Amino acid sequence: MSARVPFIAGNWKLHHNIPAAVALAGQIVDAMEPLARAAGPSKTVEVCIAPVATALYAVAQSVAESELLLAGQNCHHEPQGAFTGEVSPALLRDAGASHCIIGHSERRALFGETDAAIALKLRALLEAGLVPILCVGETLEQRDAGETEGVVIAQLRGALGDLSASALATLIVAYEPVWAIGTGRTASPADAQAVHAAIRAELAASHGDSLAQAVRVLYGGSVKASNAAELLSQPDIDGALVGGASLSSELFVPIIAAAYAVA
Ligand code: PGA
Fold this sequence. Notes:
Mean pLDDT: 97
Distance between the termini: 7 Å
Strand order of the largest sheet: 1-2-3-4-5-6-7-8
Number of helices: 11
CATH architecture: Alpha-Beta Barrel
Bound molecules: 2-phosphoglycolic acid
Radius of gyration: 17 Å
Low-confidence stretches: none
Order of helices and strands: EHEHEHEHHEHHEHHEHEH
CATH superfamily: Aldolase class I
CATH class: Alpha Beta
Helix content: 40-55%
Shape: globular
CATH topology: TIM Barrel
């Protein structure tokens, strides 16, 4: 068991309007409280959801008295200006977010985001005091070609650049094999653990052991109640970034419960 607090994040992507988002957030809060009580004060799990940007403020207002954390799904690196359609880290914070996902493979593949663009977003989030959830992961072709670790480490280096360990103190990394996202295919716990260990080893080499031991590395890609416990019990898997199974409390709450079981 590691000293890192498990982190379970729900990425709602382009789902749930304001009433649906507020209702689901309320159901998650209602389910979290008895889980936390049963686990006792020595066991903590952080739970975070990323609603669509238009629902963020309403959800934040509705869960303000709870421990539920909120994330943006993406951000622009500039604080303001002539950037039609974009949302800055400060505006996400203004709406109630404390975290923000960046570099999701859908952003990389569908919207052409490069490591350089993601590096700018990472810096902007840290400057605005938001916690970045940096996604990395290989495609099936890259895995089949034996390139998994090389691709993931290059994405990590590309995003972190020369940022210092102290600047990166809050960083969360999410390893999400592209071929496992939304497909029902999951990396085996052993395969996922191997990549997580490689990410931690890279962080130790680049930024020192203390940062490497502190950074939470989440697994994402078809996480569900039936595979969460085994994934979360791997020594370097510190939580999950959940897409499809975060869209209802029936699917999401058992994943939170699995995290309490290993906390
Ligand atoms: P999935 O999505 O759980 O539906 O595979 C994960 C993600 O895209 O973050």
